[in-house]
Give the backbone structure.
Amino acid sequence: MNPLNSVKGTIFAGFVLAIIILLLTGDNPITAMGAAKGSSVIIWLHVLAGIIWIGLLYYFNFVQGPALADAAADDGGPGGAGISKYVAPRALLWFRWSALATWLTGAAFLLHSPKGSLAGAFMLGMGGENVHAYNMTIGIGAWLGTIMLLNVWGLIWPNQKKVLGIVEASPEEIAKAKKIAFIASRLNTLLSIPLIMSMVGAGHGFFM
């Protein structure tokens, strides 16, 4: 059976290919979980989850949101019911769980990081006599990511459930939920820009 015929099969095949590449390049995935190589595996999973999360965030803000607004303004068009019923719930499923996976793998990396620490990052590198530049840089990203995660699970998802009819709500509650979800999503889009700067910069000398 062709693995490309399903999403699960495609993802599984992608991981199999990645492990084959590890074996061919001399990195044993069984023993790679020690020290620096273990951190590299965690970073890989962190980046993979982050691409899904931020990619969907940008999809909602740059594609789906404007498209639904255009559909609502088009009296003779097909409307946005299909997107709201079939696309949005599935996209939000991947969105919220990839957000959690991104945060958890990020925290796991900081717990195993040879450069910094989880506590040091959340103290922005100011836990000792001198400022720890790496912890400050990645810590800014960690704080921004935490705020974004809380927005996803505390504001965007609960309110989108009302908007999409997953939970019962009055027209007034739906109108309020739309506004809250919209502002929280736009805030996350705003925060994602310095988030990416800090996360990438931590590994490439930014602030250091």
